[in-house]
Design brief:
The structure holds two protein chains of two kinds. Chain A is an alpha/beta fold. Chain A has helices at residues 22-28, 61-69, 89-94, 96-99, 119-129, 136-148, 165-178, 195-212, 223-229, 247-252, 257-265, 304-308, 324-327; strands spanning 5-17, 34-46, 50-54, 76-81, 84-85, 102-105, 183-187, 215-220, 232-237, 240-246, 314-316, 319-321. In chain A, the strands form two sheets. In chain A, strands 6-7-8-3-9-10-12-11 form an eight-stranded mixed beta sheet, sandwiched between helices. In chain A, strands 2-1-4-5 form a four-stranded antiparallel beta sheet, covered by helices on one side. The longest helix of chain A has 18 residues, at 195-212. Chain A is globular. Helices cover 32% and strands 22% of the residues of chain B. In chain B, the strands form two sheets. Chain B has an eight-stranded mixed beta sheet, with helices on both faces. Chain B has a four-stranded antiparallel beta sheet with strand order 2-1-4-5, with helices on one face. In chain B, β9 and β10 form a beta hairpin. Chain B starts with 9 loop residues before the first strand and ends in a 9-residue tail after the last strand. Classes of the chains: A alpha/beta, B alpha/beta.
């Protein structure tokens, strides 16, 4: 595996101010309210690999994706892409060539394609914007891209409504590839699709990764999909990475109680009849997150220390876990999914 | 669970649903037959547009025009319910057939307290006064596992989280102790950990109350965990129906085989997922013969001409010519 680091994210933070308007605060009382959507996330992605972020709704995984492509400026922390810092909008503006090397694929292929544009124009837009090609070469390139994602060059004349969800997602991928990026941020690219179509898109993404040597940041809530596509996986909970490791390691030897809980919650297709322990409780509000380890309210192994002190990530054999119970060695062995 | 129960609770016979359009009728459900025994969970699985939700809607009599049942019959405990007048059907809904939908926000009225909605449903169907109904509402909320049910009874739907709202909807569906619940994608809008809670809850309640469930979902995993039998739908027809173990582990219909291979599974590492080329046909372009024939890897001449009906194959019923005579 190539070890060249493509993306390095360090202590990334993004807070959103969700306070009531100033006048309401003055009249009705109540202070500022801040959602700590991403609260100190650090990871690295090497060339040619797929790093996945998983977690439940509201854990901040999509916010991380948006911070990396620059849709939001971070509150704090650094983003280094191919050796260049893109931590704030000013730095991004100084390095348009780097910004062009990352593209994003969105979840909803119905919302992310302009219904009034022909598919050819949608895909050609990044090419024209960056002045990569001119005249007839643009059209040839669009045709080539369409064929690369399994559509026909003639589809360039059609409008998005003439395509099914899976085909639209192929168009989104073609558009993302138009500027010849080498890093793609995929935010739930198959969540809106049916399983058979999801399989087509996942296979296509894997083929493209191999042939174009792409690096992916893959965001998903579906652990089975993540285990299928990723090289490394990070599990997020309430804005923090609680565990990250190589895919096999994470799925075979999950350490963090939250990772174990997520794995346990996946419906069992093998029908082994294993007893599932449904997890009690729900994700708390990120506006007023629990003290200490934010998972302590749902964790069967929580102690006083977990309630008071934020656990720091501990790295053992390339597996990183932020959990006091793991650190103190009082967590039982993972009995495995097939048990 | 027996395959052919003697007295099915619900029986759907050769159901056909059409939508009238200016360009002629569109057949959305075509010759669908199945039955559900008392206390049984039938999973109905399929991709978007397969007609699974529409089948559920037809059973509870909530088809919206221009959709209508043009052939077949639906029997609940031996009594035809597909041709009942609106008022008679309204009394059956909730009392004898409960419904749970995907989005709990649309099933609950945002302007009324949860207590009001539960009490209304209970009093519509059961002979109880306000006080008794309120006691029953509280008991229902406790039964579906809402913490602090007594205080939460008078809250509005927006004060509940998604998972808790779905619990309230389940409480509503169970309010009059119906014998059958139609659950249409009850866990699709929820996170995995909450999904597991809701499935466990639904299973427990149905076992305790002896309620039969028609569980409509696109998620094979949910079906594998919950259902006794499964019907796999494709383009408005049943492709394969049988005991859950058979269908999940030894699928016969090429569509079911493809569908199972397309699902990424944690336990199995594969380089590439099985791909079913193309997508489901639109209602106005359903091919002659077997609707799956343009995507089928095992297609042969007869598939393009004749439409297969379900035939018994190894414990299941499979609508595929691979298992027909002369093959």
């Amino acid at each position: 595996m190539a070890q060249e680091t493509v993306l390095q994210v360090d202590n990334l933070k993004r807070y959103f101010d969700v306070s009531k308007p100033w006048l309401s605060r003055v009249l009705e009382g109540g202070g500022r309210q801040v959602v700590q959507a991403v609260d100190g996330v650090s990871f690295e992605i090497s060339k040619g690999e797929t790093f996945s972020l998983v977690g439940e709704s509201g854990c901040g995984k999509s916010t991380v994706a948006r911070l990396i492509v620059g849709l939001y400026p971070p509150t704090d922390g650094s983003i280094v892409f191919e050796g260049v810092s893109l931590s704030n909008p000013a730095e991004r503006a100084r390095h348009p060539e780097k910004q062009a090397r990352m593209q994003m694929i969105f979840q909803d292929p119905y919302a992310s394609l302009n219904p009034r544009w022909r598919v050819g124009d949608i895909i050609a837009e990044p090419i024209r914007f960056r002045k990569l090609l001119e005249g007839g070469a643009v059209k040839a390139r669009v045709g080539e891209l369409l064929e690369q994602v399994g559509l026909s060059a003639r589809d360039a004349e059609k409008y998005p409504h003439e395509f099914s969800g899976g085909q639209r997602q192929r168009i989104s991928i073609a558009r993302a590839l138009a500027g010849r990026p080498d890093f793609l941020v995929c935010d739930e690219p198959t969540s809106a699709l049916d399983v058979s179509v999801q399989a087509q898109i996942l296979n296509l993404m894997k083929e493209l990764q191999a042939s174009l040597n792409l690096t992916y940041l893959f965001i998903s809530h579906n652990l089975a999909v993540v285990s299928h596509v990723s090289t490394k996986v990070g599990v997020m909970y309430l804005g923090r990475l609680v565990e990250w490791a190589e895919t096999r390691t994470l799925f075979n030897r999950p350490k963090h109680p939250y990772t174990r809980m997520l794995l346990d919650a996946i419906p069992d297709l093998d029908m082994s009849g294993r007893a599932r322990t449904p997890v009690a409780g729900e994700v708390p509000s990120p506006i007023n997150p629990p003290s200490g380890c934010t998972f302590h309210t749902r964790c069967p192994f929580a102690t006083e220390r977990c309630r008071a002190e934020v656990p720091q990530a501990l790295s053992v054999d390339g597996q990183n876990v932020a959990c006091h119970a793991v650190e103190e060695g009082r967590l039982p062995e993972w009995r495995g999914l097939a048990a | 669970m027996t395959d052919r129960p003697n007295a099915p609770l619900l029986e759907v016979r050769s159901l056909r649903v059409e939508f009238e359009t200016r360009r002629g009728p569109l057949v959305a459900i075509d010759d669908v037959s199945f039955s559900i025994a008392p206390g049984e969970v039938l999973g109905v699985v399929g991709e978007s547009g397969a007609g699974k939700s529409l089948t559920g809607t037809a059973i509870i009599g909530l088809l919206e025009p221009p959709g209508r049942i043009t052939a077949g019959e639906i029997l609940l405990a031996g009594r035809r319910i597909d041709n009942l007048p609106y008022e008679a059907m309204r009394r059956i809904r909730g009392r004898e057939v409960g419904a749970i939908f995907q989005d709990p926000l649309t099933s609950l009225n945002p302007l009324y307290r949860v207590s009001d909605q539960l009490i209304e449903t209970i009093r519509t169907h059961l002979p109880m006064n306000e006080k008794e109904a309120r006691a029953r509402a509280l008991q229902l909320l406790q039964e579906v596992g809402i913490p602090g049910a007594a205080e939460r009874l008078d809250h509005y739907p927006h004060q509940f989280s998604g998972g808790m709202r779905q619990r309230v909807v389940i409480a509503l569906a169970l309010a009059a102790e119906p014998k059958l619940i139609i659950a249409d994608e009850p866990t699709t809008a929820l996170d995995v950990s909450i999904q597991a809670q809701i499935i466990t809850l639904l299973k427990r309640l149905c076992r305790e109350h002896g309620t039969a469930v028609m569980l409509i979902t696109h998620d094979m995993g949910v079906i594998a965990e919950t259902a006794d039998r499964v019907a796999v739908m494709y383009a408005g027809r049943i492709a394969e129906i049988g005991p859950v173990r058979k269908v999940v582990q030894e699928p016969h219909h090429p569509y079911t085989v493809g569908l199972m291979g397309a699902i990424p599974n944690l336990g199995h590492d594969v380089a590439a997922l099985t791909q079913i080329e193309g997508s489901m046909p639109r209602l106005n372009a359903i091919p002659p013969g077997c609707a799956f024939n343009p995507r089928c890897p095992k297609v042969f001449d007869r598939c393009r001409v004749d439409r297969p009906d379900p035939m018994p194959v190894g414990g299941s019923d499979v609508a595929c010519w691979l298992y027909g005579e002369g093959r």
